[in-house]
Amino acid sequence: MKNIRSVIDHELSWSQQSLFKNEFELRFGGELVATLRLPKMMGNLAVAESGDGSWTFQRTGFWKTKTFIKASGSADELGSYRRNTWRGGGALELTNGRKFIVWKSIWKRLSEFRTEEGEPLFEIQQRGSFRLSASVRMNRRALQIPELPWMVLFGFYLEVMARNDAANHAAT
User: Fold this and answer.
1) Domain map of the chain by residue range?
2) What is the tens place of the pLDDT at every residue in 14-36?
3) Are 43 and 60 in contact (CB under 8 A)?
4) Residue 79 DSSP SS3
5) pLDDT > 70: what percent of the chain?
6) Whole-Å CA distances, 11 to 55, 88, 101, 137
């Protein structure tokens, strides 16, 4: 797999590998950059991998959800995310105290990760209907963020969780 930073100037594509599995690949052209797998179809635990490493994302709670990010095989948190249920998006706080804003536009099917000051780092634009897919565009400013590799994977995890939430609500 390639490193995320090595494809910063290119548009990347997330695609679901099977309609019946929560397994996704991030590609640059024909090259595999990263994977995201949720072992349970409607589960909240995901394993993400790229040439940069491997991480787990685990969401807890219902109305006031919180998601924890860890390096695979480690009990130490790298950060946590709190969703803003009523305004869309949320806040990602790293254990070192740095914060990032996740802005969402439901109508444009777009998510954007920004610095606390509002500077855009990367965006994820959803595409497709039946199989979840999305494009990723990163700004050069994002190269200054050491956590960029797992943040890009985490951004798509949030898209998967939003789709799962919508499916759960539609079924009830």
Assistant:
1) 4-171
2) 999 887 888 999 999 999 999 99
3) no
4) strand
5) 91
6) 22, 25, 22, 5
Tens-place pLDDT, residues 107-144: 788 999 999 999 999 999 998 767 789 999 999 999 99
- Residue-wise burial string across 57-96, b where 16 or more C-beta atoms lie within 10 A, e elsewhere: bebeeeeebebebbeeeeeeebbbbebeeeeebbebbbee
| DSSP E strand stretches across the chain | 12-18, 21-28, 31-37, 45-50, 53-60, 66-71, 77-83, 90-94, 99-105, 110-115, 120-127, 133-138
DSSP element (H, E) containing 152? helix 148-171
Q: Among 56, 61, 100, which residue's Cα sits nearest to residue 78?
A: 56
Buried b (16+ CB within 10 A) or exposed e, 19-51: eeebebbbebeeeebbbbebeeeeebebebbbe
pTM over 0.85? The answer is yes
Instruction: Determine how many CB atoms are found less than 10 A away from the CB of residue 118.
Output: 9
The mean pLDDT value of the chain amounts to 90
Question: So what's the architecture of 4-171 in CATH?
Answer: Beta Barrel (2.40)
95-to-11, 67, 77, 78 alpha-carbon distances in Å: 30, 13, 7, 6
